Amino acid sequence: MKDRSYVSADAIRSDFSAAMSAMYRDEVPAYGTLMALVARVNGETLAADPQLLTRLEATDSLERISEERHGAIRLGTAEELSMMRRVFSVMGMYPVGYYDLSTAGVPVHSTAFRPVGDAALKRNPFRVFTSLLRLDLIADEALRNEAAEVLAARRIFTDRAVELVGKAERDGGLDAADAKAFVGEVLETFRWHDRAIVSAGMYQRLHDAHRLIADVVSFKGPHINHLTPRTLDIDKVQALMPEEGIAPKAVVEGPPTRKCAILLRQTSFKALDEPVSFIGEDGAWKSGSHTARFGEIEQRGIALTPKGRALYDKLLGDTRAITRPAADGSNAAEYEAALARVFEAFPDDWNEIRKAGLGYFAYSLTEKGRIAKAYGQAAGWDIEALIASGHVQFDPIVYEDFLPVSAAGIFQSNLGDDAAQEFAASPNQVMFERDLGATVLDEFAHYAGIEKASMEECLGAASMADAAE
Ligand code: OOG
Ligand code: NI
Questions:
Q1: 51-60, 140-149, 273-282: range with lowest mean pLDDT
Q2: GO molecular function terms here (predicted)?
Q3: Which terminal Cβ of the chain has fewer Cβ within 10 Å, N or C?
């Protein structure tokens, strides 16, 4: 039985995300500037749109509106990944989705550790996009072996963190003192280390193979490489970044600006060149620099069904066949225009999206529906009839996951603007799940389940009313 003195996983996750945010603002001052800009724009957006304010008041906790929604790390080995799964599990974060980024020229595959379920997401939605380096995609065998050797020797978790994870697993939770210690110990894994664990020569060779490999292999641990607050107006923040002295990436990733927001739109400021030092041959430290850390913002819309996602993927592909966004931003306007034009084929009305089976919706009883239920009257069994008669309403279910093409765009723009490298597409979810030590949750099945449950609740209410007649 669960001891009542244990701190909830949701509370541990909240403390952890707050601690991470404070650490990252401290480590990367430009990120603090971005946070302040996001808070300002969110405030202005809410002031200008009382309807949005009312809607958010009903569904979100307003004081947390500008807080982080996600962060990202890159791991080097299967052992690191499976231990990370156990760490996140203590915070109520579970692997959802499999993302193969090899197709987009990035030698990793990934999942997102996130809270699952409405109550947990509302309490604190923080998630971590977690990538595992794929050394199997590195052609140079000698370099591959050397990198594997460096990775095998490092320890990214403190002994105490490992101990506390074991304790949480054994006892089914952590008490207040242990939870506090856990957050502090786990934070260490995500900390920036400006002293590399390789020589400048080795760094260069790793870097030449792929910049991402240098980022993963050369350091003591998987430093958090970005955090991402939620914005209510991504286009505005993107436009205002330069005024604040931060350089945005060329274009916003994902769908264009629309009335009915779909999936996920994200953008970031470009990764900073930061001073680091490498192990010198003579034992002295040799100074150099490394580019990896940045700040990102996101705006989420409705979760799409496989049919809706296929349409999204097709339209994105069609756009990119017309024009690909250049890293230097020179054709950004052209790309945005093409994106908007091509996406006219995607319905921009909630009921049309719903009727076409493109998105997932949560159904609920209206005031009229609740009264009808109380008096034992109902329109019948059919959800469409109940909607038409005004007994049932529907709201879009928010997409809580990620998009591989967008993720690749974020990776690329923050690994430097040089031409992307080609890798043969080789999704390997079986290998990923073996390394993870668990299967990942299928996000489509998850959203479908939420939709189905909401529908059944409405229909159940209706049938109960029928029975009472
Ligand atoms: C992860 C990039 C993916 C997102 O928001 O799509 C990501 C990384 O750069 O490690 O965070
Ligand atoms: Ni991100």
A1: 51-60
A2: dioxygenase activity
A3: N
Query: Would residue 333 count as lying in a domain?
Result: no
Where do the H-state alpha helices sit in 154-274? 159-171, 176-189, 200-209, 211-217, 234-240
DSSP state of 2: -
What tokens does 268 get?
Answer: 């970031």
Confidence of residue 378 (pLDDT cuts 50, 70, 90): low
Cβ atoms 292, 225 nearer than 8 A: yes
Query: Are the C-beta atoms of residues 172 and 2 closer than 8 Å to each other?
Result: yes
Beta carbons within 10 angstroms of residue 60's beta carbon:
15
Q: What's the whole-number mean pLDDT along residues 418-440? A: 82
The number of folded domains in the chain is: 2
Is 174 in contact with 160 (CB distance < 8 Å)?
A: no
Considering only CA atoms, give the Rg of the chain.
24
364/361 Cα distance (integer angstroms)? 10
**Cβ distance 432 to 132 under 8 Å?**
yes
CA of 228 to the centre of ligand 2 (A): 6
* pLDDT tops 50 at residue 468: no
Q: Are residues 203 and 262 in the same domain?
A: yes
Residue 183: enclosing H or E segment and its boundaries?
helix 176-189
**In testing the pocket of ligand 1, which one of 134, 226, 291, 415 has its CB within 8 Å of the most ligand atoms?**
226
Query: How far is it, in rounded angstroms, from Cα 167 to Cα 161?
Result: 10
| Mean pLDDT along residues 217-223 | 97
Q: Is 263 part of any domain?
A: yes
Q: Are residues 253 and 368 in the same domain?
A: no
- Which H or E run includes 120? helix 118-123
Ligand 1: which of 98, 411, 415 to mutate, most ligand atoms within 8 Å of CB?
411
SS3 249: coil
Residue ranges making up the domain that contains 280: 9-303+397-438
Query: Which of 37, 36, 56 is closest to 46 using CA atoms?
Result: 56
For residue 467, name the pLDDT band (cuts at 50, 70, 90).
very low
